[in-house]
Input
Amino acid sequence: MSAPAHLLEVRGLSVHYPGRAPWFWQTAEPKKAVDNISFVVPKGKTVGLVGESGSGKTTTGRAIVKLAPMTAGNILYHGVDIGTLSNAEFLPWRKKIQMIFQDPYNSLNPRADILSILSEPLEIHFPQMTASDREARCAELLRSVQLPAEHLRRNPHEFSGGQRQRIGIARALAVQPELIICDEPVSALDVSVQAEVVNLLQDLQEQLGLTYLFIAHDLAVVEHVSDQILVMSKGRIVEQGTPAEILGNPREAYTKTLLAAVPRF
Amino acid sequence: MSAEPLLKVQDLSITFHAGDRANVVAQDVSFSIAAGEVLAVVGESGSGKSVSALALTRLLPPAPTCTVTGSVTLDGVNLLGLPEDQLAKIRGGSIAYIFQEPGSSLNPVYTIGFQVGEAITLHRPEVTDVKAEIIRALQEVHINEPERVANQYPHELSGGMQQRAMIAMALACNPRLLVADEPTTALDVTIQKEIMDLLARLRRNRGMSILLITHNFGIVANFADHVQVMWKGRIVEHGPVNEIMKNQAHPYTRALIACIPRLGQRRRRLTTLTDELKVSP
Output
């Protein structure tokens, strides 16, 4: 298959951090947060990435958007290697790839109102927009995540966790991305709010043709949203397949442990 | 099991006052917990489940800001009428708490051993070898190398280990009732299972009662004996877990159970509370 058939292709990605040597004459063993992983994300699909804390799933997501330093490997986006670009060269690509973070309380600036939070990516990526255009776009963004446009002048502390996560989603959507890396988007939310946010993400995918890399530790949620699941443990992808394959016939002991941890009733 | 329950809560109402506004966060909450029983309180954020648990030992702001009425009886003693110094002995003594975020409940500038030891010296002055008792407490919650962990600071431990240390601290004074307020919400599913298995084992070994506060029915189904569902400050449903899981009388309970994604039951959309809940209280 030719490379551009996939929106994103990761080949041999490694993120190693320098370790600490016990004594100065010894060489330090590097800490392998992500170790030689490869996977593809097809356009318009959702790929789920599951694993425990410390398995390297968040680092993988962050390395794709240059928020974590890559040690080796290639990140092909539309067939172009974006992994080796400098930060300045990467800027136009960052518009295509956005991120939603886990903690809606820490990922919004508490001193800024919603208008300036949503305007900031527009100012950077669409400098030709006028202030009134931006405000109109922000109001539209809020409506697309099912919040009233009047909330633009409010500050983050006036919103609940679920509403804040919607604002985080609106901010990611502001620059019309193709790929959104969702890093544990619902882990910090109540089960009832979690269902609303998951449904919203799925509706937006349908309306806007978005592609998701969905990172989470809860296999039940990942199974629900994903077309393809990657299971990560200790920096490596230990198993991958469709949700039916992973659930029906898990081969790895680690996948079985993850499955057993989901409460059943 | 004696006929008289360990803890009996009757007509507990909690009101917060701000200026001339009064906000009733819990109204006429009544329940009881027998010795060795696990009672789960389920509800969304803001349903009043955590404040009700805090009110048991008056861990809420004092009178003008927050008023608590009703009665909380532990072994025949009404806790709400007790003077502050006697209540301080109950808190962490007969009734111990563990909270959602172990990272922010532990004191960052003291070692784990110091913090566990503090609970022991305060509530069990008869213990002479405090150090041995700290190690024993850490072993009981399955911390490997307790001697090393006792000398570590909270930031050196993972979330799961921090929660174990919190549990060790709570159990160090042999409480009769453990209030676990969303003990695993901030943790991974695999760690969640380990912590819940640990709590189940400790409860069996010690015959301790647990008041488990959660929003997740998945945990309730596997762990609790009785469950009560809170909605907008009131208890809307109460009963044995097996019965409620099979048969829900209140639409809110049904909605809370329906919105959890389940393994192997892929649906087009998840059910949300607004889909399911088309009645007013």
